[in-house]
Amino acid sequence: MKKIIMVFGLLFTASLVHYSCTKDNELFDDGDNRESFIGTWAATEDCHRIPHTVEISRSPDNNNQVEISNFAATGHTAVATIDGGTIYVNPQNIGGGYSVRGNGILTGEIIHWTTYNSETEGNLNECTCIYNRK
Fold it and tell me: d(Cα 43, Cα 56) in Å, to the nearest integer?
């Protein structure tokens, strides 16, 4: 009987040690892919060559979407979809006569935009852009 109690005691102790060594975010992973994109970013485009700041925040309407304020240095907000480490801005009108679209890949603390377009009054700017986390 003592051996059985000792075995259960050891198993219980081992489970406590394992639990205490597990990171909190592993225990309570809510599956929100947006988390790594949320924050303030310094943006540098090859077209405008005007560094600007953008803010990426969670969209209140969709768990897979974020809102990017000042997208393409327009002063307006674009909605983007997150899929793993990729961010997609589907073609949309964001106000002020701007139509935008783009996609990028998050690597560490940098988003490399492979497609980054803004159009106003028929003038299309096809650019590349890099966002660095501030």
Answer: 12
